[in-house]
Design brief:
Length: about 130
C-alpha cells in the first residue's frame, strides 16, 4: 500500500463509529515508517544564475515539510491512543495531509513562481530531491 492509500484507509476506518484500535495503530505505524523513507521531488524553475544557492534553502524547506508530515502522523497516533480520542481532530489532520499533498504544495508553488517571468532570460530547470 502506498502512503496515500494508507491515509485514505485510516480516514475511512476512523470515520466509522467503532473500529479496531490496534489495527489502526499498526497502520499508522507503517504509514509513519513509510513517511520516513519517502523521497519528495520538486521541480525548480529559475532565471537567476545563483539557483544552486537557493536550492539549499528550498531543500531545507522540504525537510521541514517532511518532518511536519511525520509529526502530524505521530500526533494522530497519539490522539487515537487516548482513552477518549478526538476523532474529528484526527480526521482533520489526515485530511489536511491529503489536501496539501503531504505538505508539499506551498513549496512547489514557491519553486515554480520564477517560471512566470516577463523577461527573455533562459529558465533553468532543476529537480530537487528531499529525503
Amino acid at each position: 500500500m502506498t502512503l496515500q492509500t494508507k491515509i485514505e484507509y485510516l480516514i475511512s476506518t476512523i470515520g466509522k463509529s467503532k473500529y479496531d484500535s490496534s489495527h489502526v495503530n499498526s497502520k499508522l505505524t507503517s504509514a509513519i515508517a513509510e513517511a520516513r523513507e519517502i523521497t519528495f521531488k520538486y521541480q525548480a524553475n529559475s532565471v537567476h544564475s545563483d539557483l544552486q544557492e537557493h536550492l539549499k534553502t528550498f531543500k531545507s524547506y522540504g525537510k521541514q515539510n517532511k518532518a511536519r508530515l511525520i509529526a502530524t502522523l505521530e500526533d494522530v497516533q497519539r490522539e487515537l491512543n487516548y482513552k477518549h480520542p478526538n476523532k474529528k481532530l484526527a480526521l482533520y489532520w489526515l485530511n489536511r495531509i491529503l489536501e496539501t499533498s503531504y505538505y508539499t504544495d506551498k513549496l512547489q508553488k514557491r519553486l515554480l513562481k520564477d517560471a512566470i517571468v516577463k523577461s527573455k532570460k533562459t529558465v533553468q530547470i532543476e529537480v530537487l530531491e528531499v529525503s
